[in-house]
Structure formats: structure tokens, C-alpha cells
């Protein structure tokens, strides 16, 4: 009987530690931002940042644009401010 109590106590402590760890780790995560785990500087100008994602994403207009606009990260005029001078071929939704 004493062995079962010890095993139950170890399992309970393990589950409690796991719960505390999950709560602690989730505090730094923004569920509305899929890029939250990457520092902003790296995402904007890093080797695998914005340009890499746009070039390798098959449809950034559909998968990224609406979310960025909804989050207040810039709409069509914001995109055009970089795309036009860079002569990037794009087709933004209306």
C-alpha cells in the first residue's frame, strides 16, 4: 500500500509541474500572431524573414494580407510603399 501512495504522489507532482510549465511557457505566446516566436528584427530583415516567406508562400495575398490588414499592420498603401520602388510583381486583393 505504501508503494502505491508514493507512485500516486510522484504522478501528482509530475502533473502539477507539467501544468505550471505549460502555463509559464504560454504566457509569452500571442495566439493571434503566428510569428510571435521570432524576434521582430529577424522576421523583418532576417535571412528567412518577410521576403523569404513571401517568395516561398504560394499565395501570400490570401494567407497573409487579410490577417495583416486586420491586425493593423498596414493595408494596400503600406505594401505598395515597398513593392512599387522594388518593382515587385504583386496582386493585392481589393
TrEMBL record:
Keywords of this entry: Membrane, Transmembrane, Transmembrane helix
Transmembrane segments: 6-25
Taxonomic source organism: Desulfitobacterium dehalogenans (strain ATCC 51507 / DSM 9161 / JW/IU-DC1)
InterPro entries recorded: Multihaem_cyt_sf
Protein's UniProt name: Uncharacterized protein
